[in-house]
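We modelled each protein-ligand pair independently. The example shown here corresponds to the pyridoxal-5'-phosphate entry; the chain sequence is given first, followed by the ligand as SMILES.
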Amino acid sequence: MPDSTAIPLSQRPDMTVFLNGEFIPADQARVGIMTHALSYGTGCFEGIRGYWNPKAEELYLFRLREHYKRLHDSCRITNITLPYTVDDLIEITVELVRRNGFRENCYVRPFAYKSDEIIGVRFNDLVDHFTMFSVPLGDYIATDGLRCGVSSWRRVDDNMIPARAKIAGAYVNSAFAKTEALQNGFDEAIMLTAEGHVSEGSAENIFLRFGDELVTPPPSENILLGVTRETIMRLAQRELGHVVRERVVDRTELYVADEVFLTGTGAQLAPVVEIDHRPVGSGAIGSMTADLVRLYHEVVRGQRAEYSDWLTPVYGGAQGMATNGAHATNGAHAANGANGANGANGAHANGAHANGTKPAKATSGGRREEAGAGRAKK
Ligand SMILES: Cc1ncc(COP(=O)(O)O)c(C=O)c1O
């Protein structure tokens, strides 16, 4: 089985991606080297996780609606026209993941961007394109206790690059912080605002426990309003009965907190055991963090019925997979768990889609025509 992390997606004829209204083999997805977003970072994206539940033989996509509402907000801020509604995007995502036949945890990356091949930096009067890929993904950062360093790089301000929008170019700020942290021997960076308050990690929100209270910086502290952050706030309040407060946090509170953890789609819930060479609490993973980790992993895998609204099942049960025909040629995916069973995916490679349905097409006006892709198989 090819290791999907070893082979670049652009060399995977067996995997399907979505580009400008069509599901196409990943090795046929091309963007020009002069693309505006490549030069200037003028794109917005999301990161979404899917969790495989082997017992239910189901892959659950987590909080799609919230992710796509945020993508719409990001696009409003950056003058990008998204040709898809939240419901359209949910449908495309389910279809994309289903076509790839994952039977393991996965990650989905939708990206809306300025596609013109021109010189000139701006947002207005440019053409917008949309793409989405999905890949298998395990842990993004360690979940057994991170050692963090407060970064010398400050978090971008709302009037510089708004952090509430998930803007591609803003991740240069994260990259500076993360690189510095790694090169200084830490696992992750904690970034401060220009005023010196705690903002967030390089790609994670942050929580601190003081006694029975959970504290996290408010939206005005230049944070991305994380879907996981909101999830954890709700679970901590509702399930564990903790007080959760959004408030400004000083740097040195990091050194005296009882527990600290980071949250994010990639990071999931990552306990922090050391900050700037000082142990957090006892230096071991705290009990509130451990309770939340357990709860979070139950919720995302569909083991908590009361939170099933947050989950979108991809296959509709294992039997659904076998009978819906969608995976007829992707059977090798399902059968051996390999996403790279080339023989079975020849149909992808030559452009004939497995299920025989027409891929979703975007019209020149940007709206997607009735596509059949996905709908036919529901
Ligand atoms: C800068 C930043 N903050 C916070 C988060 C966490 O957001 P979410 O929980 O929605 O993934 C992310 C995740 O992508 C991020 O990039």
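The mean pLDDT is 86.
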